[in-house]
TrEMBL record:
This is 5-hydroxyisourate hydrolase. Homotetramer. GO terms for molecular function: hydroxyisourate hydrolase activity. SUPFAM superfamilies: Transthyretin (synonym: prealbumin). Keywords: Hydrolase, Purine metabolism. The keyword Phosphoprotein does not apply. Residues 8-118 form the Transthyretin/hydroxyisourate hydrolase domain.
Length: 119
């Protein structure tokens, strides 16, 4: 999937092993005015979202949240016990019209994470 096919894209990098994170479940929620699940996907071999998260025509400006199911991913890789430290990493973002493509990467290990607005 080309990034430009979606108004919002993401990817996850497994910083503990220095590789893309394949098989991570991701949900996209619109939080305002009431929480609504907009999309769900799973990361591909290159750590990117498999399905389009949001087309530009579907954008409703406001507060959104990406939820990364990192706990199950790291457990499957044998990097944490079943009761690992991180379970679901929520990343809240405010989307607006006229701001161009949003790309929100997650850099994650079993014990920490960081994110930023990419291109």
């Amino acid at each position: 999937m080309a990034q430009h096919d979606s108004y919002l894209s993401t990817h996850m990098l497994n910083t503990a092993e220095g590789r893309p994170a394949e098989g991570v479940g991701i949900e996209l929620w619109r939080l305002e005015p009431e929480p609504v699940l907009l999309a769900s996907t799973v990361t591909t071999a290159d750590g990117r979202n498999e399905a389009i998260l949001m087309a530009e025509a579907d954008l409703v400006p406001g507060l959104h949240e990406l939820r990364f199911a990192v706990g199950a991913y790291f457990h499957r890789r044998g990097l944490t016990p079943a009761e690992g430290f991180l379970e679901v990493v929520p990343v809240r973002i405010r989307l607006a019209t006229g701001q161009g493509h949003y790309h929100v990467p997650l850099l994650c290990s079993p014990f920490s994470y960081t994110t930023y607005r990419g291109s």
